[in-house]
Fold:
Amino acid sequence: MLARCRMWVVPLLLLVMAIAGCKVDSVNPITSVDTAQPDASIYGLWRYKSKDELTYIHVGPEFALGDAAAAANRRTRVIFIDHKPNGLTDEAYVAYASRIGKQRYLNVVQSEDGKTVGYLFIRYTLVDRNTLRFAMVNEDALKSAIRAGRIKGTIRGEGLTSETVITAESGDIEKFLNEEGGKLFTTPLVVKRVPDR
Structure:
């Protein structure tokens, strides 16, 4: 089921909830996963702290046994560790990096029963070496684009049960984001790099 969670919560929790498999932006990635190139500039440990929240985000290449060259396998692993008063929670995801001009994106794999059902798109900017800004797709902006015929997709339901999904092929998604990506990604979340010891 391609469902979209809509929670009005703090920014990082919203990002984690969206990535956690209850949301799909597209059935296809922005660019082919076969040509994806990992973005080592965002590898490392990142920290998000607000009044009631402390989360560490680990970003790096996915581990692979055997051939080290195969380990540069295009897949990025993202692990969230959330520190809460009653204990720790952790979530792990796999993503592929895409670039369109100077804009960078992560195609976060969404799967059910071990099968990929789609991708969540995260736009990110390395503001400086120690500051990373993420933004998610704004569902209302995506609905408007689909209704206007600027990108092929489906819209089902309303409110908490709504589902807005891009069904276009990767080449069309890349072209669409090149032209309208700035309007589609809103409410950025800023995280800071944890310095090496």
About this structure: Confidence is low (pLDDT under 50) at residues 1-10. The chain has one domain: 11-187. DSSP finds four helices and ten strands in the chain.
